Amino acid sequence: MADIRHFIEIDGAPGQVYAAVANRAGVAGWWTPRVTVKAGSVAGDSEGDSLRMHFRRGGGTQDIEVVELLPERRVQWSCGPGAFEGTRISFELERRGQRTAVRFAHMGWNSALSATSTGDSSCRASSGSSRTARACRANGAAECPKGPKGHHGG
Amino acid sequence: MTIDAPPERVYEAIATREGVAGWWTPRVEGSDELGGTMRMHFDLVRSSTDMRVVALEPARAVEWESTAGDFQGTTTRFDLEPRGEGTFLRFTQSQWPSASQQFATCNFLWGFFMQSLKQLVETGEGTPR
User: Fold this and answer.
1) I need a surface site. Which of A64, A84, B50, B62 has the fewest CB within 10 A?
2) Radius of gyration (Cα) for chain A, nearest Å?
3) By the 8 A CB rule, do B128 and B43 touch?
4) Which residues contact B5 (CB under 8 A, 6 or more apart)?
5) Which of residues 84-113 of A touch B (CB under 8 A)?
6) Across the strands, what pairs with B79?
């Protein structure tokens, strides 16, 4: 298992950062512009809601269940159908003066050597690399969804 | 990540001091030869890191061992593969002792600098800091 972890500080209060993560409209402002709510409230701001991210350029969709909403402190998601299926995502917020420290984690990846690519399967295209071949065997070469600008999602 | 340029051009941006200064930190001193050591200065945070060049495989791979500074003990590697008209770059910084706050900060920053590398090679202008 492998986890992605990011740490950043944001010039804004925890409430502002929380608002950007804890509902449908917030997420649509920085991740993928089209986010729908599969079940529950239209705003997607309740625990148990299920958000669906729609990635552009054939990137498919990703369902995310909102597991925990702790205002100004923590948001936890569990990933359902999509490339992230079975992984968990969390945002931990902490006030630092006028700023907010954000600890982001995307946990439960099968392998850190996962050969993701924007496009075709890495297994097929990189048979010359033993490192890639190992990674593909370990993880089945799951692809990342594409972000709004064609970057890897997550 | 995928870069819209052939591996030879991506390699130039990683394997030479001038290239690195175009996407990572503008102040790079020392030798970019195999076995040489480059010192990257991060003036914004008043720190530096020394990178010993331990692998140079034209159009295929570059590996650095960090011998002093922020990344001491880690290995940084760039693997390149042709992908159609472009390049698939696999970037790895390994041997971190733990998933510390510094690790998470660097992980975030590497994402920024990978985008800078991509822009440098594709457009001629990166965003070194």
Assistant:
1) B50
2) 16
3) no
4) B86, B87, B121, B122
5) 103-104
6) B61, B90
pLDDT in tens, B85-115: 999 999 999 999 999 999 999 999 999 999 9
Encoded tokens for A68: 């925990």
- What global pTM score does this model have? 0.81
Per the document, the length of chain A is 154
d(CA B129, CA B117) in angstroms, rounded, equals 12
Tokens 């529950």 locate to A40
**Would you state the pLDDT for residue A113?**
65
Return the residue of A nearest to B108 by Cα.
A6
Distance, CA of A117 to CA of A145 (rounded, Å): 9
Is A71 a residue whose pLDDT tops 70?
yes
Interface of B with A in 61-120 (CB under 8 A): 79, 81, 83, 88, 90, 99, 101, 103-105, 107-108, 111, 115
Res A141 pLDDT > 70: no
- The Cβ of residue B126 has, within 10 Å, a number of other Cβ atoms equal to 23
Q: Are B67 and B50 within 8 A, CB to CB?
A: yes
User: What distance in Å separates the CA atoms of residue B92 and residue A101, rounded to the nearest whole number?
Assistant: 25
The set of residues, in sequence order, having a beta carbon less than 8 Å from that of B57 and lying 6+ positions away, is none
Dist CA B47 CA B45 (whole Å): 6
- Give contacts of A129 with chain B, Cβ < 8 Å: 79, 81
- Residue B73 bridge partners (DSSP): none
Mean pLDDT of chain B: 96
Q: What's the whole-number average pLDDT of chain A?
A: 79
